[in-house]
Amino acid sequence: SPCAKIAPSMLSSDFANLAAEAKRMLDCGADWLHMDIMDGHFVPNLTIGAPVIQSLRKHTDAYLDCHLMVTNPSDYVTSLAKAGASGFTFHIEVAGDGWKELLKDIKSAGMQAGVALRPATPIETVFPLLEGEEHVDMVLVMTVEPGFGGQKFMPEMMQKVNVLRKRFPWLNIEVDGGLGPSTIDEAAQAGANCIVAGSSIFGSQDPAGVISILRVKVEE
Ligand code: DX5
Ligand code: ZN
C-alpha cells in the first residue's frame, strides 16, 4: 500500500486560532491537514470555504486535504485551487455523470482529485473513476454519516476498504469518522492508509502520541 498519511480534521480545532492549530498539528507529526467544507445543504452543517483556505495557506505549506460536503462541487474548483487547496475530494452522490469533467477540471487546476462515499453508497459506484486513463488519486470511505465530528466509527465500512485495496493496490484509501487508537486496527488491517481523525486527536492531552499510534498501526 502507499505510505501513511495522518490527517487531523481541523473541524475539531479552534477555528478562531486556525493558523496556530495547524502549526500545532504539524509539530505533532501530522502529514496532511483535513479541511471539511460543508455547504449546509449536502449536509446539515455549514463550515468554511475558499476564503478560509486562502487565509490558512498564508501560514503553512502543508498539504490541505479538502473534503467537499457540498451539493455543487464544480462551483468550488477554481476558487479552491486559487486559494491553495492541495487535494479536492468530492462526493460521488452529487457528481453524477458530471464526474469526468469535474475530475478533469480538478486536475487541470493543479490539485489532487479524490472521491468520497457516504455510508449507504455502494463501493462499485466509484470503480469507473479508478479504471480509466484519467482517474482519481484517492477514495475517501466515510465511516460515519458526513456532517459532524465526534460520531461513532462504522466497522461495516471496512468491507469497502477491503474490496478497494484488493483491486487497486496503488490507491490512496482514506477513512474519515470515528478514527482513533481504538478503531485504527480495523481500518489499517482492511488497507486504509490515509487516516482522518478529529476528536481523538484534538480531544487528547497527547495529540502527538495519538498521531504516532495511528501511523504505527498503518505502517505495521
Ligand atoms: C465529518 C467529517 C470528518 C470529521 C471527523 O463529516 O468529514 O472529517 O471531522 O471527526 P471525528 O474524527 O471526530 O469523527
Ligand atoms: Zn472529512
TrEMBL record:
One of its GO terms (biological process) is carbohydrate metabolic process. Signal peptide: none annotated. It comes from the Eukaryota. Binds 1 divalent metal cation per subunit. It holds the Pfam family Ribul_P_3_epim. Its EC number is 5.1.3.1. Substrate binds at S9, H67, G147, F148, G149, G150, G178, G198, S199. The keyword Isomerase applies. The active site is at D36 (proton acceptor), D176 (proton donor). Belongs to the ribulose-phosphate 3-epimerase family. This is Ribulose-phosphate 3-epimerase. It comes from Ceratopteris richardii.
